[in-house]
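User: quick one, sequence for these tokens?
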């Protein structure tokens, strides 16, 4: 996918069209947002955007994380069900405290391929392809963990 332009946004609300949040690695921007409607740059961090989305979804990030740790024992790189009513789920590629952490939105992922031992390509249903600096096995593990989280909440018809 060729990116024609990136738009700077002051506000961005995570929604069903959000595909991924990656570090922008620029002095003025913290996050590069991949959305089905375009690519956006934000001065806000990925975790701040996730925290706001969790609040919009009816809970705090800490509450969502605590529930996953309680139910499924995922204490590190915890996948998050951001909104049960909208079926928005994402998983981190690293510890959310790590500046290299990206967040991948589960329901947009078509497949993943290995590029090198420590680098993978995530292929999205929209045709977007993003390289992330983590191994394929870590991405697969995170996808499986996210699937278990969704299954845990599967009595919600949004996930069916």
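Assistant:
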């Amino acid at each position: 996918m060729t990116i024609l332009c990136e738009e700077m946004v002051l506000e961005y609300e995570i929604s069903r069209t959000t595909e991924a949040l990656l570090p922008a690695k620029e002095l003025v921007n913290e996050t590069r947002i991949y959305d089905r409607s375009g690519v956006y740059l934000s001065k806000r961090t990925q975790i701040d955007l996730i925290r706001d989305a969790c609040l919009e979804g009816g809970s705090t990030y800490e509450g969502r994380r605590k529930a996953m740790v309680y139910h499924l024992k995922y204490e590190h790189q915890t996948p998050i069900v951001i909104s049960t009513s909208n079926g928005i789920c994402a998983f981190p590629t690293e510890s959310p405290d790590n500046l290299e952490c990206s967040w991948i939105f589960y329901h947009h992922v078509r497949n993943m391929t290995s590029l090198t031992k420590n680098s993978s390509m995530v292929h999205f249903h929209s045709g977007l392809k993003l390289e992330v600096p983590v191994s394929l096995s870590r991405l697969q593990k995170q996808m499986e963990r996210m699937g278990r989280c969704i299954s845990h909440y599967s009595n919600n018809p949004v996930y069916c």
